[in-house]
Amino acid sequence: MHDVASELGLPRVAEVVARFYAAVRVHPALAAPFARVGDWPAHEAVLTHFWWVTLGGKRYMDYRYRVAEKHIESGFTPALLEDWLALFADTVRESLPPELAEPWLARARHIGESLRQLHAFHAESALSAVRA
User: Fold this and answer.
1) CA-based torsion, 69, 71, 74, 75: positive or negative
2) How far is CA 119 from the centre of its chain?
3) Rounded to whole angstroms, how far apart are CA atoms 68 and 115?
4) Are 87 and 20 within 8 A, CB to CB?
5) pLDDT score for 53
6) Which end of the chain is more exposed for a tag (fewer CB within 10 A), N or C?
7) Residue 47 in contact with residue 17, Cβ under 8 Å?
8) In this predicted structure, what is the pLDDT of residue 65?
9) Is the Cβ–Cβ distance between 115 and 71 less than 8 Å?
10) What pLDDT is recorded for position 120?
């Protein structure tokens, strides 16, 4: 993936993250699973760092990301993931020119696919345990 962090700049990444999570908090399907976030400024700071590093920026926080675990713990389903990805795509495309939006969205889709596969694995494991 092409490094777009330097082209975006950290302030713009933070702005997109803030816009996106403002939309999440009022989204009909996504608001409920995200209601467990107690400190939105801290959550957005961590996610700004996550996206900054994911897009090729240099780490400035010491934080261990547990993307898959966090999504499983919060009960995120494939349907919620689709809603998340659609809202994220809308927000990123509204906020950035295509040459910056599309590489970011490609990375989000890749992460989404990993989460889908993990969800399928856990669903199959749970079904196997019930059958045993």
Assistant:
1) negative
2) 15
3) 6
4) yes
5) 94
6) C
7) yes
8) 72
9) yes
10) 60
Residue whose token pair is 């700049």: 9
CATH number of the structural domain spanning residue 85: 1.10.490.10
- Give the list of residues 6+ apart from residue 6 with CB closer than 8 angstroms, or none: 56, 57
- Domain range spanning residue 98? 5-131
Average pLDDT along the chain, 132 residues, taken 10 residues at a time: 85 98 96 91 96 95 76 76 95 97 95 79 47 50
Measured between alpha carbons, how far is 62 from 112 in angstroms, rounded to an integer?
A: 24
Can you read off the two tokens belonging to residue 60?
A: 């400035």
Q: What are the tokens at 76? A: 């995120």
Are 100 and 51 in contact by the 8 Å Cβ rule? The answer is: no
CA 121 to chain centre: 20
Could you give the number of structural domains in the chain? 1
